Amino acid sequence: MTKQELVTALTARRDATGLTHADIALRSGLTERSVRNALSLKGNPQMSSLLALVDALGLELQLAPKGFGERTDADPGYRPVPTRIGDAVGGAAAPSASASEPRSRKRSP
């Protein structure tokens, strides 16, 4: 996500909630000027200010690997990394009978 995309998402949320800069400042504990600067492309808020702003807008920041969630048809050569969760979600074949049988364990003396 670029800075422009982040600012666009935050301002869209502000518009959707109908909150003013003063409302956000009150909710976040920031000054109105800090809110205005953070919601502009020229601003460069500290992480603590950004987190307060995001929280005041009823959002949360999450970290994800680059490209996570992108459309897979954008790159015809894309092959997802196989995982147990990915296979389950992708409708992988049911496990074989031998995989579902209980395993015997050797007990230590």
Automatic annotation (TrEMBL):
<dbReference type="InterPro" id="IPR014057">
    <property type="entry name" value="HI1420"/>
</dbReference>
<feature type="region of interest" description="Disordered">
    <location>
        <begin position="68"/>
        <end position="109"/>
    </location>
</feature>
<feature type="compositionally biased region" description="Low complexity">
    <location>
        <begin position="92"/>
        <end position="101"/>
    </location>
</feature>
<dbReference type="Pfam" id="PF21716">
    <property type="entry name" value="dnstrm_HI1420"/>
</dbReference>
<dbReference type="GO" id="GO:0003677">
    <property type="term" value="F:DNA binding"/>
</dbReference>
<dbReference type="InterPro" id="IPR001387">
    <property type="entry name" value="Cro/C1-type_HTH"/>
</dbReference>
<protein>
    <submittedName>
        <fullName>Putative transcriptional regulator</fullName>
    </submittedName>
</protein>
<dbReference type="InterPro" id="IPR010982">
    <property type="entry name" value="Lambda_DNA-bd_dom_sf"/>
</dbReference>
